[in-house]
Amino acid sequence: MLPHGGTSRHQQSGQVTLGHLLLAIAFVMPFSGALAELKHSGSGALRYVMVLPASFVVGALIVRLDWKLGKALWSRSKQHSPKMQNAVAIFLFTLQLLWIVFGAVSGFALAALAVRIFQT
Predict the structure, then answer these.
(1) Distance between CA 46 and CA 23 in Å, rounded?
(2) Claim: this prediction has a pTM higher than 0.70
(3) What is the domain partition of the chain in residue ranges?
(4) Disulfide check for 104: which of 20, 29, 45, 87 has CB 3.0–4.6 Å away?
(5) Mean pLDDT of all residues in the chain?
């Protein structure tokens, strides 16, 4: 049985959480969106070489921005009531889901742009 209403006292114990999993998915989504569009358009090696590093950068920016924003909001919510902390947690979860969608769309758009620019 966990003390303090079901929450662990040692929240900094290095555990992998759902938030970490969602960040990993958000990091990979620009790759998958770009690969789907590049395969669909029948692209050559040049487009892959141009788009995949750019999608890596987009994924890294998404993860960094989400991590910094989540850390700032969560550290501020520690001062408030448990009800407010739950609202912040739900907001951060929803935001991570939106980052996943944004990553997929941005990877797809990046590949579509490369296909349009380098048409043969």
Answers:
(1) 29
(2) yes
(3) 18-117
(4) 29
(5) 87
